[in-house]
Specification:
Elements: H1 16-35, H2 53-68, E1 76-83, E2 86-93, H3 97-116, H4 125-142, H5 144-167, H6 174-188, E3 189-190, E4 193-194, H7 200-212, H8 230-259, E5 267-272, E6 279-280, H9 290-297, H10 301-314, H11 319-329, E7 331-332, H12 336-345, E8 351-352, E9 361-362, H13 368-376, H14 406-449, H15 501-505
Helix pairs in contact: 1-14, 2-8, 3-4, 4-8, 5-6, 5-8, 7-8, 9-10, 10-14, 13-14
Bound molecules: zinc ion (ZN).
Residues 335, 366-367, 369-370, 391, 394 line the site of zinc ion.
Region (Disordered): 452-503
InterPro entries: OTT_1508_deam-like
Pfam family, one: OTT_1508_deam
Length: 515
């Protein structure tokens, strides 16, 4: 992907110290969450209420965002912009957007526009099937690499375990197992060897048919609780679905286009939103100590003492070394959905196709920081699904002083940054507290069960502590909830006594307005 070069005079920086107040606790939270055993909770998008025109427009951009992401390393976000002379499908993301994604989306839009010129009666029955076949063939050719990587993962990492279980007859429904395994052998190998890339289109169609015939539903019989390889069978089912998802999404695209016929009477074309340059994460190795991080997080002296102690006890080994390594290796970029938001923020006129639903279609659910950014953004963008994943390569959108309304947008961004810092700090504090309580309980219970009893006296368990001293039940999930905001003054001012020191640190985090 080509990176844009950004001159320093056009863009400026946030204060490095302010950025560290976000990235330091974020880095620690990232490590603690990775260590967690439970999966982050998914946050679903706000509902557009039924199959309304709003929902159909969402389905349309969701389908484009899925179909346009051609392979590994390509994630895109899509929104439709209304302009006086027509509609523009705006595409932002990672990968080759201008050279690969936008030409594909334009071809797809051209095929849909041609279809919409047909009479309603001509888009029915067998004719509609032929149109769908033509569109899905085109989309599958484009998705070959993506489908191939799903196929290889299934073939090498998932299928061997599941097929062995099925062969061993671990399930009573042996007849169904045989049918499934025969189908698998016939379609997933050619003369006993793995399929080449060019067979992916056929394979996707076979998987689509198998899903409709409910052949693969048989796998669900192995996903009962207690089965040794339950997660493998769940993955097997999901992976088979992924192989044919391009056909589902093409169908979703066609259905929504037919419903949105009115939108297609305008000119419709795809255009890109430029991607962001890659910049180092604003962490300074020499500032990375547990005490230093705590000092910048809390103004309350008791918390500054308490937090490092608890973190020392619960942190994964080599936490600080890992953060120091991140400071050298991690680069940040503006995620696709925030590139789209930033683009729409710069428009002096025009805007979303429907300003009541400022929705962005994304290839994947948003990360946690993107989710929070949209939540805290004053322009009221529609919430999109989120995986709650914590990404260190995240950064705020770049604001150029030459763009429309730059200073007001920069003020908004400063407020969002403050809210992000506050939220991440609360999440981390809660996480460390919960880990510490869990660990303390574990230690206490181990001590309780290993008390020596060879002195002939009875070994009484200690009395349960009084309610006042009982710590609240720890939240073991790594799910990240949105806390109430606590906008407090800068808590670090009394600790980092040498603000000028940062000027020597030269953390280049350009791409922002100076506030
Ligand atoms: Zn993100």
């Amino acid at each position: 992907m080509q990176k844009r070069t950004i001159s320093r005079s056009q863009y400026d920086t946030h204060k490095p110290k302010e950025l560290r107040r976000l990235y330091e606790p974020l880095g620690v939270l990232h490590e603690l969450t990775m260590k967690g055993t439970t999966k982050p909770r998914s946050i679903f998008s706000t509902s557009a209420q039924g199959i309304s025109i709003m929902q159909r427009r969402r389905n349309f951009v969701d389908a484009i965002a899925f179909l346009g992401a051609y392979g590994k390393g390509c994630e895109i976000a899509v929104a439709v912009e209304r302009q006086p002379d027509g509609l523009i499908v705006r595409v932002a993301g990672t990968g080759d957007i201008d050279g690969t994604v936008v030409p594909f989306v334009n071809s797809l839009l051209g095929m849909l526009s041609a279809t919409m010129k047909l009479g309603k009666d001509e888009i029915k029955g067998d004719n509609k099937e032929r149109i769908l076949l033509c569109l899905s063939d085109f989309a599958l050719d484009f998705a070959q690499e993506k489908v191939f990587s799903h196929y290889m993962k299934l073939l090498h990492h998932i299928a061997p375990v599941c097929l062995a279980d099925m062969t061993a007859g671990l399930n009573e429904a042996r007849r169904d197992s045989l049918d499934f395994m025969t189908w698998f052998q016939e379609n997933f190998y050619k003369n006993g060897a793995p399929l080449p890339r060019e067979h992916m289109k056929l394979l996707a169609k076979e998987c689509f048919k198998a899903r409709q015939s409910r052949l693969i539903n048989h796998l669900r019989e192995f996903t009962y609780q207690g089965h040794e390889h339950v997660t493998y069978f769940e993955k097997f089912y999901k992976q088979l679905r992924k192989l044919s998802l391009t056909i589902d999404m093409t169908s979703q695209l066609l259905e929504s286009t037919i419903f949105l016929r009115q939108d297609f009477t305008n000119d419709l074309a795809a255009e890109s939103i430029p991607s962001s340059p890659s910049l180092p994460i604003p962490l300074l190795p020499r500032k990375l100590t547990i005490e230093g991080i705590a000092n910048r997080m809390f103004s309350d002296p008791s918390k500054r003492d308490d937090f490092p102690q608890k973190l020392q006890q619960t942190a994964p080994p080599k936490l600080i070394q890992t953060l120091a390594q991140y400071s050298q290796e991690v680069h940040t970029e503006v995620h696709p959905e925030l590139l789209v938001i930033n683009y729409f923020d710069t428009l002096s006129d025009g805007g979303f196709i429907d300003e009541r639903d400022r929705y962005i279609g994304c290839t994947k659910p948003s990360c946690y920081l993107c989710h929070l950014f949209i939540l805290y953004h004053p322009a009221g963008y529609s919430m999109i699904s989120s995986s709650s994943k914590i990404c260190l390569n995240w950064r705020l959108p770049d604001i150029s002083v030459k763009e429309y309304n730059a200073m007001a947008r920069a003020e908004n961004q400063k407020s969002i940054l403050r809210q992000l810092i506050n939220t991440i700090r609360i999440q981390l504090e809660e996480k460390v507290n919960n880990e510490w309580i869990l660990q303390t309980h574990r230690t206490e219970s181990e001590t309780e069960w290993t008390l020596p009893i060879d002195d002939g006296t009875l070994n009484y368990s200690p009395q349960p502590p009084s309610p006042e001293s009982t710590p609240s039940y720890p939240i073991t999930s790594t799910e990240l909830r949105i806390p109430e905001l606590d906008i407090s003054p800068d808590e670090t001012s009394s600790v980092d006594k040498d603000p000028d020191q940062d000027a020597e640190d030269v953390i280049l985090f350009k791409g922002r307005c100076r506030f």
